[in-house]
Specification:
Blueprint lengths: L5 E5 L6 E5 L16 H8 L8 E6 L2 E4 L3 E7 L2 E7 L5 E8 L4 H14 L5 E5 L4 E4 L3 H19 L6
Parallel strand pairs: 1-3
Antiparallel strand pairs: 2-7, 2-8, 3-4, 5-6, 6-7, 8-9
Helix pairs in contact: 2-3
């Protein structure tokens, strides 16, 4: 019997690494304006990434299941998530790309690029202040590698005090 795959994202990480429409992305346009359906997104990502059985969010010790959210990924550190409305139109799509493994970086790059075939999209990392065209795989992979390297370096810094 196979084990159920679950993924958790902290509420602060919601849309921190986000896909947005290329047109008007800087002016607050939302992904929902493109009318991408849950079925289209799943069809695009399914051949690349296995789907998680359950998605959870929360903070501290609080954890709750997300009912209109799905995730596809290699692991809980390499996944693309999306939520939808009652008509199954995608509202938001965001990444949880924290795995430094080269396979994970290349998989994240392919997943973001495949979604750009549905519509022109940009990938924005709000926390790190970078963005690029979702279809620009070389730039995306380079920025992701750089970010993950910096995160790893900070994780190994000696604690002050």
């Amino acid at each position: 019997m196979s084990r159920m795959r679950e993924i958790y994202f902290h509420e602060d990480d919601y849309c921190l690494q986000q896909l947005l429409p290329t047109e008007g992305a800087h002016w607050g346009a939302e992904l929902r304006t493109l009318r991408i359906t849950r079925e289209q997104l799943s069809a695009a990502l399914g051949p690349l990434l296995p789907v998680f059985d359950s998605v959870y969010t929360g903070y501290g010790s609080h954890r709750e299941r997300c009912t209109k959210t799905a995730a596809w990924g290699l692991s809980d550190r390499c996944a693309l998530l999306a939520d939808w409305d009652d008509d199954e139109i995608i509202l938001h799509a965001w990444g949880k790309f924290l795995d430094q493994d080269e396979e994970a970086i290349l998989t994240a790059t392919r997943a973001v690029a495949v979604l750009s075939r549905l519509h022109p999209l940009i990938y924005v990392d709000w926390a790190w202040g970078y963005q690029c065209a979702a279809s620009d795989s070389d730039t995306f992979a380079s920025m992701l590698r750089s970010k993950l390297k910096e995160l790893a370096e900070h994780a190994h810094l000696p604690k002050k005090g």
